[in-house]
Amino acid sequence: MIMQTDLGGSLPLVARGKVRDLYEINDSTLLFVTTDRISAYDVIMSNGIPNKGALLCLMTANWFRVLSAAIPGLRTHFITLDLPPQVPANVRGQYQNRSMQVRRLEIFKIEAIVRGYITGSAWSSYKKHGTFVGIKIPPGLRESEAFPGGPIYTPSTKAERGEHDENIHPDKAAKIVGSNYAKRIEDLAISLYKHAAAYALERGIIIADTKFEFGLDKETDEVVLVDEVLTPDSSRFWPAASYKVGEPQLSFDKQPLRDWLMSQALKGKENVEMPDDVVTMTEEKYRDAFEKLTGEALELNARREAAAH
């Protein structure tokens, strides 16, 4: 279990996020290291989920390959799963398969959320107002139903660690990122979601919603897909076999943790330690999603990646 990384001073630490620790390799390259930390309702739990870092890192790498093949011209920040030579030999085994080298870019200050099905905060708002972040939604929808006109784009602010994201109207997002980039981000996010949803559905998973993050390549003025992509941390994954409109769904994500926090009145509380059964259930959900989406068991994948490098 790795809750906090330590590369022995071999690389400068740039930042610690909710899940990832970022190190500088050089002026144009960062090392993203995915820990086993887990957060819910924007608060990090005191204990983590075993193997979570490797599951998220390798799942993201798989999505980069899948989406780059599906969308001609897609740019991502991914370079390699190889560790840089600066990382000491005595810790390389701990960080292989949970680390990736990425290009250093200017990050747009929004989270590009795409929703294919009405659930979560969108469902709560819809029941009260018939809208979500000021977007009118057709009447008569039932919980967990697909949006009849296709997926909708509902961005949020990108909060600093310890603060809370805020769902916002696309017009407000445009003021944050600039009108010359807002439509490109929205169109790319929806295109990514549609390709990913079709891929996942073939493998028995419904992607109810997800969030993407994007950066700017200033040299080419291109919008680039960055950060983690379509993982149980950033998405709601539902098993297609048990999907039923009109009720909450089973999930392959951290919903068991959210449910436990709500049941214990611990939503938003600091210094919360998950009980063993919640930890085990959450690891199983993440592992199941990984195996369905990649077609590989984590152990086999990890050995293959290690052997390849």
How would you explain this protein's 3D organization?
It is a single chain. With 309 residues, this protein is an alpha+beta fold. 34% of the residues lie in helices and 22% in strands. The protein has 8 helices and 16 strands. It has helices at residues 52-70, 89-95, 120-129, 170-177, 179-201, 255-263, 276-294, 298-308, and strands at 13-16, 20-26, 29-34, 39-40, 43-44, 78-80, 99-103, 106-107, 110-115, 131-132, 135-136, 152-153, 156-157, 205-217, 222-226, 235-239. The strands form 4 sheets. Strands 8, 9, 12, 13, 14, 15 and 16 form a 7-stranded antiparallel beta sheet that branches. It has a 5-stranded antiparallel beta sheet with strand order 1-2-3-7-6. Strands 4-5 form a two-stranded antiparallel ribbon. The radius of gyration is 19 Å and the shape is globular. The chain starts with 12 loop residues before the first strand and ends with a helix. Residues 300-309 have low confidence and may be disordered.
